[in-house]
TrEMBL record:
<dbReference type="GO" id="GO:0005525">
    <property type="term" value="F:GTP binding"/>
</dbReference>
<feature type="domain" description="G">
    <location>
        <begin position="7"/>
        <end position="94"/>
    </location>
</feature>
<dbReference type="InterPro" id="IPR027417">
    <property type="entry name" value="P-loop_NTPase"/>
</dbReference>
<dbReference type="InterPro" id="IPR006073">
    <property type="entry name" value="GTP-bd"/>
</dbReference>
<dbReference type="Pfam" id="PF01926">
    <property type="entry name" value="MMR_HSR1"/>
</dbReference>
<protein>
    <recommendedName>
        <fullName>G domain-containing protein</fullName>
    </recommendedName>
</protein>
Length: 272
């Protein structure tokens, strides 16, 4: 049996959607663009296939596969309202995605009217929204702060902010807002050099907000991201109430396979 799930990633062209998709999955899945003429008109999709990681050792995992489709929408800045509504609602309604990840970079021209509509239709359909300020150092601090303010005021219309932790703002179980630098940033003219940051925190935020089947699909999506699983193992153990000695054993003995060792505990907790 194959379990099929979907994730929707949207935002304007060149804001860093493909770069973020690769950073989330911990491997090269989406083509990133270096040229200015890289606008795609087609909805792109990336498919991740993997064996089902079960919470039950007795189950025959060979018969269970997981297939996750990541939809990468073409730059929505040039879309008309009808265009956005038609595309997005078709995916939202048909595929009931695990989550909707909206990306905007500080320097880019964010279309808040379209974002407003995307948020509204996601929240109404119970689809978790992650609004991400991508490529955070590509614009000045002021434009980054303005973007985050805009995200916050859009989300607070639906749900008040419930937590602000590790640079992630949480809005109940409906949404979160984050800032990331998905790959190292260098700007010789401005003399800026920055490491990648914010990805583990974003992944932790989404992981700890999803429930049930969606949580399981999400864990499979990011299972290859070794850096996330090892950096956040302790926090995950806390959220999913994995006893400390068990968590320590997993950390010490599973090395690269830490995701495979931790996910069964999360799956069990997901259905409690
Ligand atoms: N340093 C840095 N560069 C980024 C980041 N995100 C995107 N970029 C760069 O910005 C360009 C466009 O990114 P891409 O992911 O292809 O944008 P997309 O069109 O939204 O998919 C590429 O040259 C990326 O390397 C980031 O977080 N940090
Ligand atoms: Mg792209």
């Amino acid at each position: 049996m194959t379990n099929e799930s979907n994730i929707v990633v949207c935002g304007s062209a060149r804001v860093g959607k493909s770069t973020l998709i690769n950073a989330l999955c911990g491997r090269e899945l989406a083509k990133t663009s270096n040229s200015l003429s890289s606008k795609t008109d087609q909805m792109e999709k990336y498919i991740l296939n993997r064996d089902y990681i079960s919470s039950n050792e007795a189950s025959n995992s060979n018969e269970n596969r997981y297939s996750i489709t990541i939809w990468d929408t073409p730059g929505i800045e040039s879309w008309t309202k009808e265009h956005v509504q038609e595309h997005i609602s078709r995916i939202m309604l048909k595929s009931n995605p695990v989550c909707m990840i909206y990306c905007a970079s500080p320097g880019s021209f964010a279309r808040l009217d379209q974002l407003e509509w995307i948020i509204e239709s996601s929240i109404k359909s119970n689809i978790y929204c992650a609004l991400v300020c991508t490529n955070k150092y590509s614009g000045g601090k002021q434009s980054r702060e303005q973007l985050l303010k805009d995200f916050h005021s859009l989300l607070s219309r639906y749900q008040p902010m419930t937590k602000n932790e590790n640079n992630i703002k949480y809005y109940g179980n409906a949404a979160l807002c984050a800032t990331v630098n998905s790959i190292p940033f260098e700007d010789e003219d401005r003399g800026i050099e920055k490491e990648a940051e914010g990805i583990n925190e974003l992944l932790f935020g989404i992981t700890s907000s999803l429930k049930g089947d969606k949580l399981i699909a999400w864990c499979h999506t990011i299972a290859d991201n070794e850096s996330f699983w090892s950096a956040m193992a302790n926090q995950l153990a806390e959220v999913y109430k994995i006893a400390r000695p068990i968590a320590e054993e997993v950390l010490q003995n599973h090395g690269k396979d830490i995701a495979k060792a931790l996910i069964p505990f999360i799956i069990r907790a997901a259905f409690k």
